[in-house]
Amino acid sequence: MGKLEDLMLEGMLTELKATLLYAEAEKRATDEGYANVARMFKALSDAEKIHLNLFSRLYYGRDATEEDVENLKGKVGFNVGTTKENLNVCAEVEDETKQYIDAANTAIENGNPGAYVVFTQLAQVGESHANACRNALKHVEKEEDMQPEKIYVCPTCGYIQVGEPPYRCPVCDEPGKNFIKY
Ligand SMILES: [Fe+2]
Ligand SMILES: [Fe+2]
């Protein structure tokens, strides 16, 4: 297996871990009475599923199936903590997507522009996710829920915006009218 394929597989595992962790964090936030933080974790988890499929299309040439998810699940481990802890982990996980910039360079060296676009976009999206987590954390540290603002997710790249959707996605140029509302 080439180095680029390894990086795609690694990306798929990172995104699957985030999908599963944020889904658990959503339940935990609901239990702790943070309804709006729970809604944000739902948006984040769905965005990570979009990322999982972006890597799956590069690696397998198709979306990830239930069977792929079952097979890959055993390779990812994570701990679910309190909502405050989960938000901290989320911000750290999203900061780590900066490493995708190096992977994007490997994609260029390998003459794979499709992989270059995915790695580059996901590094940018990671920043939007980290910011969303840090914003939520400010509220949870005061033991209060986030404001009941709408949360919008880009259906193409998983970029997240709180408040109103952008005219076009700043990462992938998808029209804001197609964003998914949470
Ligand atoms: Fe992601
Ligand atoms: Fe986008």
Q: How are the strands of the biggest sheet laid out side by side?
A: 2-1-3
Net shape = globular
Name of the CATH superfamily = Ferritin, core subunit, four-helix bundle
CATH architecture call: Up-down Bundle
CATH topology: Ferritin
In the residues, how many domains can be counted?
A: 1
What fraction of the residues are assigned to beta strands by DSSP?
Answer: under 5%
Number of strands: 3
Bound small molecules, by name, code or SMILES, are: fe (ii) ion
CATH C-level category: Mainly Alpha
Share of helical residues = 55-70%
Furnish the topology, listing elements before pairings.
Blueprint: H1 3-31, H2 35-59, H3 66-73, H4 83-95, H5 100-109, H6 113-140, E1 151-153, E2 160-162, E3 180-181
Helix pairs in contact: 1-2, 1-4, 1-5, 2-6, 4-6, 5-6
Bound molecules: fe (ii) ion (FE2) (2 copies).
Kindly describe this structure.
This protein is mainly alpha-helical and 182 residues long. The chain has one domain (3-146): Ferritin (Up-down Bundle). It contains 6 helices and 3 strands. The protein has helices at residues 3-31, 35-59, 66-73, 83-95, 100-109, 113-140; strands at residues 151-153, 160-162, 180-181. Strands 2-1-3 form a 3-stranded antiparallel beta sheet. Helix 1 runs antiparallel to helix 5 and helix 2 runs antiparallel to helix 6. The chain is globular, with a radius of gyration of 16 Å. One fe (ii) ion binds at residues 15, 18, 48, 51, 122.
Tags for this entry?
62% helix; 3 strands; 182 residues; binds fe (ii) ion; Ferritin; three-stranded antiparallel beta sheet; 6 helices; mainly alpha
